[in-house]
Specification:
This protein has 194 residues and is of the alpha+beta class. It has one domain: Gcn5-related N-acetyltransferase (GNAT) (Aminopeptidase). Helices cover 31% and strands 31% of the residues. The protein has seven helices and eight strands; from the N terminus they run ββαααβββαβαββαα. β3 and β4 form a beta hairpin. The longest helix is centred in the N-terminal third of the chain and has 12 residues. The two termini are 25 Å apart.
Length: 194
């Protein structure tokens, strides 16, 4: 397992890693996770295997995004889509800068729900995205009904901007600036130099 990004999170005393999605290796996990009761309402990808595989092939071949599996202490437990706003539908809903990035995520493994891991995971992914020095803003657009996840985004440093009507959902558009993120988590990352 070669991770694209790994960090030790002192708040949870665990290692968080993001590994590039591999269709052959990770499809059984994604298929299981997309059929979990807590995922279905917000992702709507509880499809038969061939349909889901076709969707993921398209996602892998979409060069404006990168797909990852999130690991905690070497165990796969979450799915992530990190994308460039330019080229994504969300660019039509505000005035994006050239290097704005966005994020989609789910914690798939139910053993990891309700354990306070969402914020450390999100914080790690945002730190990973901000390694691209030209990126000054990370965007999220969770389903407006997903109050728990919106709260986690707010804790991470995202601010509510507005509700937007996307083709597949009513979303809460949220922004996290590099400045606010680094200020909020400066104690966490003082040694890693965001």
């Amino acid at each position: 397992m070669k991770a694209e990004f790994t960090k030790y999170d002192q708040d949870i005393d665990r290692n968080i890693s993001f590994v590039s999605f591999n269709l052959d290796e990770h499809f059984p996990l994604i298929f299981k996770w997309m059929h979990e009761d807590h995922v279905i309402p917000f992702w709507g990808l509880n499809k038969p295997k061939e349909q889901l595989k076709s969707h993921l092939v398209n996602a892998v071949n979409d060069h404006h995004q990168s797909l990852y599996i999130g690991y905690i202490d070497g165990t796969p437990m979450s799915y992530w889509e990190a994308y460039w706003v330019k080229g994504d539908i969300i660019e039509d809903y505000y005035e994006p800068a050239a290097n704005d990035q966005g994020i989609h995520l789910l914690i798939g493994d139910t053993d990891y729900l309700g354990k306070g891991l969402s914020l450390p995971l999100l914080r790690a992914m945002v730190q990973f995205q901000f390694q691209h020095r030209q990126t000054k803003k990370i965007v999220s657009e969770p389903d407006y009904r997903n109050e728990k996840m919106i709260h986690v985004f707010e804790q991470c440093g995202f601010e509510n901007v507005k509700k937007v009507e996307l083709p597949d959902k009513t979303a809460q558009l949220m922004f996290c600036s590099r400045e606010k993120f680094e200020e909020r988590w400066s104690h966490e990352y003082s040694e890693t130099h965001l």
